[in-house]
Design brief:
Low-confidence stretches: none
Number of helices: 5
Number of domains: 1
Strand content: under 5%
Distance between the termini: 63 Å
Oligomer: single chain
Helix content: over 70%
Largest sheet: none
Structural class: mainly alpha
Mean pLDDT: 85
Length: 139
């Protein structure tokens, strides 16, 4: 089966399972409040981390360096905020892991290492020398 189909069907089923389990332990109202609190706190912290990443990216640009990690980190923070907005405990756990800098760095380094190894092996580089040739008009 396709991975996307498994995720589309599996994540809501997992969320429903967690809603039932947590709701039976702490009650329905407390479960809803817990989901709202994680969404609000997650958005607030995502905003804070987003501004920190933006500040770090700007300092990289001032140094004339490409802020590659900050760009990827900003995308990961945006994705984490989306996961925290979605109601559910499984998506909240993944969102929390992506939003904290320590775990985000571990996750991103794992995937970037795999990505960079595959890309370097597939690229072919051609080195050469060149020489300027003037036109007949002397230009």
């Amino acid at each position: 089966m396709n991975t996307a189909i498994i995720l589309i069907l599996g994540i809501p089923l997992l969320e429903i399972y967690f809603f039932i389990k947590v709701g039976s332990q702490i009650g329905a109202l407390n479960t809803v409040l817990l989901i709202l609190v994680t969404a609000i706190a997650g958005i607030w912290y995502a905003r804070y981390e987003g501004f920190n990443t933006l500040k770090s990216g700007m300092s990289q640009l001032v140094k004339n360096e490409m802020p590659l990690y900050e760009i990827v980190s900003g995308a990961a923070i945006a994705f984490a905020a989306l996961l925290l907005i979605l109601p559910g405990f499984a998506t909240d756990i993944i969102g929390i892991l992506l939003i904290f800098p320590v775990t985000r760095k571990i996750i991103l380094s794992k995937y970037s290492r795999n990505y960079s190894k595959n890309k370097i092996k597939k690229k072919n580089f051609i080195e050469g020398e060149y020489e300027d040739i003037e036109d007949k008009d002397g230009k």
